[in-house]
Amino acid sequence: MSKAVVVALVLSSSLVAAQPAPPPEPGTQPDETAETLNNLKRQNELLDQKLKALDDELEHKVKALQERLETAEHKTTDPEPKPKDRTSLFKIPEWVTGLRLTSDLRLRYDEIHAPDSAFVTRRRYRPRLRLGGIATLADDFEIGFRLASAPTVVKDSGGDPLSTNQSFEDNASRKPVGVDWAFVRWTPLHLAKVTGSIALGKLENPPSFTEEVFDVDYTPEGAAEVLSFKLHANHTANFYFGQFILDELAFSKNDPFLLVEQLRLDSKWSKQVATRRHRGRFEHRPRGGPDHRERPRLQPRQHARRQWAR
Asked: Pairing relation of β-strands 122-137 and 96-101?
């Protein structure tokens, strides 16, 4: 029941109580009139009590509603709690802006046979493991590092420079792992049509050379510079310069090294047709070629099959 209705009932009861008592009808007694007045007074008191109780209840509900409204407004104005920071086990410094992993594992069955009855057929199970990546740093720097399985060529050779394939042999012996990449590269030129970089260390495989020149697993040691010129939207000229250390000789001052130069033109003629033309030049130092003591250590079959440095 609303407060207005209750007030109206009270007013009506008060008016009834305030009206003068009607004159007694003929034949009625004065005691009956007094009793009627007393009944009306009791009813008026009961109505007053009910009205007070309803008024208190209404005031209590209004107060509770106001508190609920204030609480709702307070929640909407408060900022949302910040999520807890998740701590990572591997924290990357701020100066590292990116990381590209270059890792793979390969298991291969290798069988070598010939029609000659004197030839011994070889069956080998050969794993290859490479684990590394290239990290992009601030100020246009990159760091490349990779480990690879390293088959032994001869004693103290450091591993085969032309292969990362191992063989399951020697009664489950431990397989050696060597450093395949360890270089830093800086790219200071970032112009609209010209880019340039320089790299130092144990480098990636030189680009755009066939296997007759550089084996795909060969990672030279020294320095390399790359310049790229965008001649047209579909034509780019690239210059590659390499200074590779072949060996360090303890008893000679004529340490052998290799100079590499290459000019390459990349052209895109349509969505399906693209060409690549390149010219290269190699110079072995010291001139005239090193003697047998200064040659890089290679097995005879590899040296005859893969002329990676002439």
From this structure: antiparallel
**pTM: predicted TM-score of the whole model, two decimal places:** 0.62
What are the boundaries of each domain within the chain?
Answer: 98-305
pLDDT digits (tens, 9 = 90+) for 152-179: 777 667 788 888 999 998 898 888 899 9
Closest CA to 194 of 150, 228, 146, 163: 228
Q: Is the pLDDT of residue 292 over 60?
A: no
Under 8 Å CB-to-CB from 21, ≥6 apart: which residues? 33, 36, 37
Rounded to whole angstroms, the Cα distance separating 230 from 225 reads 17
Alpha-carbon gap, residue 37 to 124, rounded angstroms: 123
Query: What would the CATH number be for the domain defined by 98-305?
Result: 2.40.160
Closest CA to 187 of 227, 236, 247: 227
Per the DSSP assignment, residues forming a β-bridge with 195 are 190, 228
pLDDT tens sequence across 235-269:
999 999 999 999 888 888 889 999 999 999 999 99
For helices 30-77 and 3-18, the axis angle rounded to 10 degrees is 160
